Amino acid sequence: MEPCDIRIVLVAPSHPGNVGAAARAMKNMALGALVLVRPKDFPHPEASARAAAADDVLAAARVVASLAEALGGCGYVAATTARERDQYFRVIDVRAAAARIVAEAQRAPVAVVFGPERSGLSNEELERAHALVRIPASSLYPSLNLAMAVQLVCYELFRARGAAAPASAPTAAPLATAHELERLYEHWEQVLAQIEFLDRTQSGTHLMTRIRRFLQRAELDQNEVHILRGMLTAMQNRRRRAGGEPA
Questions:
Q1: Residues 120/143, Cβ–Cβ less than 8 Å
Q2: What is the pLDDT of residue 159?
Q3: Rg of the Cα atoms in the chain
Q4: Fold of 6-161
Q5: What is the pLDDT of residues 121-175, one digit of tens each?
Q6: Using H for helix, E for strand and C for coil, what is the string for the chain?
Q7: Selected residue with higher pLDDT from 239 and 35
Q8: Average pLDDT, the chain
């Protein structure tokens, strides 16, 4: 099986045993890139014990301070969730998501993000993803242990990598990285403030959240981000020529 650039990202894992079990699950399915965001206890003897023969995956794990750092250089980002979310997030079944992840990993690093054991990922963290991954489970008890969720996702990735052809071919241009998207959102917010396009939602805080979510669903490539930022810059230049304040 050919190597692929897929990162498994665990955000704020609280139990070192789950970290070790996740490393073991990854090695079972031929994955080796583990990134830990603010782990509570790592390194830890329990993590090493649960990793068993996957101690090399554990030893190579990167520990970072933020999700933004964990996603550095990534194109496609998928985030896992067990909770119901509102309609502005795209939700994909784990098997379909695995095929897309494998296809995207052929041209740029991809991240699959898992949240803390008790709370899962926050809405702010989910907004960095192009899609949410749902693992089908009984409605009577749908909650999965973190290591179990990693095992199931890694299994589907293993199956997808062994398929004859990807279910969804990647687009011609690489997807914009998480960093490039954040710069676009910052630029967009700056222009909205300059043209006094006010947030008229009830709380006054939802406009940029809605913009971020529909642009994440659009899966912008790098060329499209450049086009949008060029348009935003043109608006700023037009405003300056009309006598407005400089950016």
A1: no
A2: 95
A3: 20
A4: Alpha/beta knot (3.40.1280)
A5: 998 999 999 999 989 888 888 888 999 999 999 999 999 999 644 444 555 688 9
A6: CCCCCEEEEEECCCCHHHHHHHHHHHHHCCCCEEEEECCCCCCCHHHHHHHHHHHHHHHCCEEECCHHHHCCCCCCEEEECCCCCCCCCCEEEHHHHHHHHHHHCCCCCEEEEECCCCCCCCHHHHCCCCEEEECCCCCCCCCCCHHHHHHHHHHHHHHHHCCCCCCCCCCCCCECCHHHHHHHHHHHHHHHHHCCCCCCCCCCCCHHHHHHHHHHHHCCEHHHHHHHHHHHHHHHHHHHHCCCCCC
A7: 35
A8: 89
CA 137 from chain center: how many Å? 22
- Its pTM stands at 0.79
Start-end of CATH 3.40.1280.10 domains in the chain = 6-161
pLDDT exceeding 90 applies to what percent of the chain? 71
- At 117, list the tokens: 């054991």
């390194």: which residue's tokens? 43
Quick check: 184 and 225 in contact, CB under 8 A? yes
CATH 3.40.50.1970 for domain 178-241, yes or no, is no
